[in-house]
Batch of 3 targets.
Target 1
Amino acid sequence: MPSILRPPQVEGRGGRSRRQVVVAPPIPVAHRAENDAVDRSVRSTVWQQIRPGALAAVQGLAVALLSLSTNVALFALSVVSLALIPALGIGFALFPAVTVLVRLSLTAQRRLSRWTGAPIASPYAPVPAGARLGTWQRFRWVVSDPATWRDFAWLIPGTITGGVCLLAFVLPAYGLEGALFVPLVLYLTIGWYGYGVFWPMDNLVKAWLAAPQGWLILAGGLAVAHWLVWLHFRFAGFFLAPTRAQELALRVRHLAATRADTVDTQAAELRRIERDLHDGAQARLVALRMSIGLAEQLMANDPARAARLLSEAQETSGHALAELRHLVRGIYPPVLAERGLIGAVQALALTVAPPVDVDVDLDLPGSPPAAVESAAYFAVAELLTNVAKHSGARRAWVSLVHRDGVLRTEVGDDGRGGATLDAGTGLAGVRRRLAAFDGTMTVTSPPGGPTVVTMELPCELSSRRTLPSSGTG
């Protein structure tokens, strides 16, 4: 028998035997760290395998609770409010409130669909300008929207499929109960058996035999949970998603709104250029003209003063030229024309003041159109300025990639977070600039960070622009 199981007896004084304690050598620190790393890797792998199913089980429970608790009640209220319309017109006061509640409930269900890989877009037409909540005009707009009646049509089918989604939670929970809860808790505490799918249980041995079937049901439940929730929302899309006609109508409204924003932005930009020219370069050029004219008059009688005036005129012309260059740089930066978007973004990253360290990851096999390049450049410049001024970050990153006809730009930082589109940090202006090119922007900025701004601009790439070499004149 090994000594670690039966310590050897050593003869002591007086013929007595005493037990010798054998101390095992300590495990080397390197081996211990390696074992810990392996354990963490195994736990991480196991969690990655069960995480989608576990999240889908929670999603299924949320969908089932929302559908079963609200759809039936809202359907009953809808029927009652419509039935009461002939009775003294009570339904006219009740039905608008029911309509609002239905929209709120189904908007929440559409948001849940984003978790599942089958997102459902909002089908509702925009609110008319000047329509206030609770007014008759707003109610007429809601009732005339076909999406409203499709919402009502979904209440009963949604209740049925929402109830089916409950299986996404019940199956894993039932399997976990059989695998652990019955053999470890119920019998040892109250001596009760109640779990058994394939055979009845009346003793502890059979309770433990339920564990394998419990693990089997748990694995099967986690495997099908995502598909149950996904099928629910795919079916819901026939009722809750925009129809083809609605998509076209919403698209036309979106393009009209972005066109109006683009026209307003261009008009404001022209006014800014005019103001900068009037207050800057134009004023200096007028002063330059006056100085040269006065010097011409003094040239014969006071050459020294005329020379001083010409020197001042030369300095004024230099300032005017610098202001014109600055103005042109704000319209289309020369660095874009010289180095392209990749070089321009790299130059922007170098201009961010410490302590912010900017990492750049650029993967563009070609060059976007000049207008798209300019929009992306100014968007990145504005966002990096926000990082330096408002975020309190020590690290930021910029990534550019072109996939499937879309230029995707991501700017993030590890700052304090909490950025919103209406916080006065220029994000709304960036979104308007991108909308002119049918681009989109999403902001993820929880309190405490990190902040990630993702921008997408549809475009095609041309051949990559070559940067000037160091030997080029």
Target 2
Amino acid sequence: MIKPASKSAEFATAEQGRTAKSILIDGIAKQIKLFSNPKEDGRRWFVLGQKEVALTLRVNNKPIKLIGDETKVVVPVEQFEAAMNHFRAEVEKGNFNAQLEEADKGIATRREKLRSTRAAKKTATK
């Protein structure tokens, strides 16, 4: 039976599962994929040097502080994937929760702004 997603317990809320934490974890997986396939299109959070890779982690188009106030770290090229997996584990453990909570606020603000803009456009076209 076909029904609207809003009537489904599993899909009732549009934001379900799309927290800053889940966005960051998905982004890390995407960066590993982009690193292993350089010809694939996508925005990269890393810059490849000859022997090292500079990387940042981003949520809501803002960098996350990784070490102290530093938002960019450098790792040897051969350790890029291990470094990204390390940061994924740190995110899953909750070590970036304070920053991610701030990002969640920004994401919620943006969602509300988009909703009100869409509603205003709908009203204006009627």
Target 3
Amino acid sequence: MVVDDLDALQGKFEGIETVAFADLSTQMILVTNSNSNQRREALEMLCAEATVALGSADKPALGDTPSPAAFVATKNQLRIFLRAPGEPSDVLCCVCKPDVDVASFLSDAKPCLAKISSGT
């Protein structure tokens, strides 16, 4: 199940508060990790931010091609948005503490997203 994959990813890294799987074509969060404390309104805003940061499959935010990732950092939080390589509307939206090991997280998050997106 998708929630199990998200829980496993979130559980590997201290400082990951929320991992959500979203569909940018509908601008909806489809599922989150089971212990996410984000309210529905916050999740909707997170998905909207992903749409702005990444752009849609047919309207990239910047340049001519859709970006595979985007990062939004504040003093207290890092938000990571990853686009599935095979399905440009599928994204992971991650809310993290600013000191998360981004490189390690990305090395696990990318295959997790690919698995979820492909339905395997």
